[in-house]
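Q: I have 168 residues here and want to know how they pack in 3D. Can you give me a structure?
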Amino acid sequence: MIPTLETERLRLRPWRDDDLDAFSVFTADRKATEFVGGTFSRGDTWRRIAMFLGHWQLRGFGNWVIEEKASGAFVGYSGLWKPDGWPEPEIMWGLLPTHHGHGYATEAAARARAYAFEVLRWPTAVSYIVAANLPSRRVAERLGAKHDGTTELKGTAVDVWRHPSPQT
């Protein structure tokens, strides 16, 4: 079962079939998808939702929908990620461009990270960020993550941002 998490302004909840329309807006937006593989068709968006749900089944953790509590609006997604081939577990986020600049990515990722460390007892976590993705780099910095080298994922060089662990 996928838990629902909350912050002061946000709800991190499981994906639903009716998220397809809102997530399709995200996946069709060139700016929103610039650093996550580019735009997707509606069918590929549906498969992406299915993949996010399957990750929960296979790994016991995954991504949540970020929902604004006050309005119920779909803001984006955030969560925990370690598909096959990933060197370390990742904390990730992605927002609709209309929701940038409100601190939602930082708030959601901080809550997801707390779940990883407190519930799943992860000893460490990183975020893999393309160097040109300045907004995500700023989120990582606000979360207290530190640049920890580079690696290659799926043929792309990415910076490794290491999150502070409660054990340190």
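Q: Anything worth noting?
A: The helical segments are 20-27, 30-33, 42-59, 104-118, 134-142. The chain has a mean pLDDT of 94.
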